[in-house]
Amino acid sequence: MVHAISIQTADFSLETEEKLAEASSKNCGALVSFTGKVRGKDHEQLLSHLYLEHFPGVTEQEIEKIILAAQQKWPLQYVKVIHRIGNIKTGERIVLVLTACEHRKDAYQANEFIMDYLKTEAPFWKKECFANGDACWVDMKKSDLDHTQRWKQA
Amino acid sequence: MALANMLKIIYMAKLKEQLAIAEETIEWTGGTCDELIQLLRSRNELWHTTLAPENVYKLAVNKSIVHQNAYIPENAEVALLPPVTGG
Questions:
Q1: What ipTM does this complex have?
Q2: Is A8 in CB contact (< 8 Å) with chain B?
Q3: Which domain holds residue A40?
Q4: Could you give the number of structural domains in chain A?
């Protein structure tokens, strides 16, 4: 399995990433990509942008562990995880998880597994910066913990 | 060269802002994660509430996340991580 992790401030191109995946997985019949974007309105207040902080070195290590755990469960040929940090405006892309397998169900499930674990294990922190100048750190969602827990019971 | 019997503590994200400190070095001769948290909580009311159990999700010892009440040796670097919200 070929896999790569990138924590970056810059945006990414899905088209470029798909081409890279295709070049790295020879007999791949399924390529699944998840792109997370910044919602403009999550509350009453209008959001200006998100500020993303992470723990350099540790974040990459934790994502690596998640990818290797997925590899134990599904026959993955290629995995790419990109997560942006810094200031990210509403409507912009924030995260990409790309999985390539021979068959569709494996690629779908592995993709969801990686994304679920990323949300509860990888040390990223989001701050919502509103149009009126207010800012607050986002609270962890119980539903995210439930999603990860579901894989442990599966 | 590191001084003997010390511990470097790094505060991440919300904890860093609420405690108004990014990192510090304290005297430490070894102990568990729980012992360290208790020690920090005992500083004053702000530390007590900021480092309440629901606000400290995980600790990383020497840049490796520990899942249980791990032992933190002297001259280590420990990071306090609030609940994570990536993705």
A1: 0.93
A2: no
A3: 2-153
A4: 1
**Structural domain for B43, as ranges:** 6-81
Task: Take residue B29 and report the two structure tokens written for it.
Answer: 């001769």
Quote the pLDDT of residue A45. 86
The predicted model scores a pTM of 0.94
Scan for tokens 């609270």, then name that residue: A139
Q: What separation in angstroms does the CA of B52 have from each of A10, A54, B49, B55?
A: 35, 21, 5, 5
Type of residue numbered B33: C
**Closest residue by Cα to residue A62 from A123, A3, A1:** A123
Minimal Cα distance from A38: which residue of B?
B87
d(CA A154, CA B38): 36
In order along chain B (87 residues), what is the average pLDDT of each group of 10 residues? 82 98 97 97 98 96 92 97 96
Average model confidence (pLDDT) for chain A?
95
Which of B13, B57, B64 lies closest to A137 in CB terms? B13
Whether residue A76 contacts residue A26, with contact meaning beta carbons closer than 8 Å, is answered with no
Beta bridge partners, A81, equal: A5, A97
Count of structural domains within chain B: 1
